[in-house]
Amino acid sequence: MKKFLCLLLAAASLFAHATVLAKPQSKTKEPPQAVIEDDTASIPSVKIIRVLLDEQDADQESKFIIKSPHGFVLESPTESNNTAVYQKPELHLLCKDKTLYLQCRDHRYRRIKYDSIEICSPQRTLTMGGSTYQGSLVIRVDEENNSVLVINKLPLEDYVYSVVRYESIPSWPLAMQKVQAIISRTYATFLMQQARLKNPRFRYFDLKNTNIHQVYNGTHNYTHLRQAVDETSNLILTHKGNVALTMFDICCGGAIPAHMRPKDCSKPYLARQKRCTFCQTAPSYQWKEDLHITAFLNQLKNSPNAARKLKHFNGPISEVKAFDCDKAGLVHRIKLFDKNNKAFTLTGNDIRTTSPHKIKSLSFNIKKIRDRIVITGKGYGHQRGVCQWGCKEMVSRGWSIKGILNFYYPGTKLSRLL
Ligand SMILES: [Zn+2]
């Protein structure tokens, strides 16, 4: 720590403003009023979440520009109450040959002796790449995976406030936003536990900021969403005392998860037996994609997975047939026939990932009609857990938040994070 601080001070002294000070204390807030009673035991939890914002190849040179009008507080990767101040509105960092460098006043980059640096702002927000983040940013060299990671560390409740904006529609009713806050908090908590207990890949972060996990893009101006977060503060769903994996998607299209394959028996609450009929007026309840056979084949060949399987495909497409579907209607395997009538097998996912915003789920029928491939489908997403459009409709019909959660995740209970 001493060496690190000396280095930071050496760099910062070029600005003649360097000082050492106690770590700033976060402001205390009035505890928000929860409107939903919890009915099970409390779950101990870590309250700071680590979100991966960016990952760069460590063999390439990477530059990071972070902005904060009132300067920065820099911290070493070790636990300490000491920090160094860096009084400029912009901070430039460089990673080259797996080493971090900080740009000083003379515009020269000086080496940081540690493999990570944590950057905070006295104003509690930092801007990078057009987005503004609460909490701190950590730039870390991950030698094991040959990458440079940019991680945002922030309180879980602030993270949930951001995610509700990006994973829901801000104009939807408050009760819907509360459901979203509970399931996003639960999903994040589940991944935080997994990351810290088991997965070495997630040693430095808990989850990613994309729809691989949950979309997170920092601060926003939809302040009315704060009410949904505050009034469900620390509430999560549990199953038999464990944090639930609260998957959710945009529209289930009426598919019954219990009839899907593969069925994860360790999470029975994701295998709902009841059909959701609440999303039938949703824009994605039914959809259609219609492509010329050449355009469809080109689309497949632009996707690495499908292209590998179609390496010897001799076009044009003469026929297409879905031959492996589950009871819920999801397509698992498809045969594509070339002009010699030779069959090539693709997965439903191979088809879907070529155009995930148009081929919106695996619940589809695929046909060749003359020189067109016509795909008609239902739902948008993976069709497990909360169906957001269905949930919105249930709210408008007067269902309670607990009733909705119990419908989509049967057997779960509301619990409180300590
Ligand atoms: Zn639905």
Please report the distance between the alpha carbons of the first and last residues.
32 Å
For the biggest sheet, the summary is:
8 strands, mixed
Give the oligomeric state. Answer: single chain
Low-confidence stretches: 1-35
Strands side by side in the biggest sheet: 1-5-4-9-12-13-2-14
Summarize the structure.
The protein is an alpha+beta fold and 418 residues long. It is built from 9 helices and 25 strands. Helix 2 (156-167) crosses helix 3 and helix 3 (174-197) runs antiparallel to helix 8 (388-396).
Features:
418 residues, alpha+beta, eight-stranded mixed sheet, six-stranded antiparallel sheet, disordered N terminus, binds zinc ion
Descriptive notes:
The protein has 418 residues and is α+β, with helices and mostly antiparallel strands. Among the domains are: 2-30 and 59-145, no CATH class; 286-378, no CATH class. The chain contains nine helices and 25 strands. The protein has helices at residues 2-12, 156-167, 174-197, 225-230, 293-301, 304-309, 348-352, 388-396, 401-408, and strands at 20-22, 48-57, 62-67, 72-75, 82-86, 90-96, 99-103, 109-111, 116-120, 125-128, 131-134, 136-142, 147-155, 207-208, 235-239, 242-243, 248-249, 286-292, 319-325, 331-337, 343-347, 364-369, 372-378, 386-387, 413-416. The strands form six sheets. It has an eight-stranded mixed beta sheet. Strands 8-7-6-3-10-11 form a six-stranded antiparallel beta sheet, with no helix packed on it. β20 and β21 form a beta hairpin. The longest helix is centred in the middle third of the chain and has 24 residues, at 174-197. The protein is globular and about 70 Å long. The structure holds zinc ion.
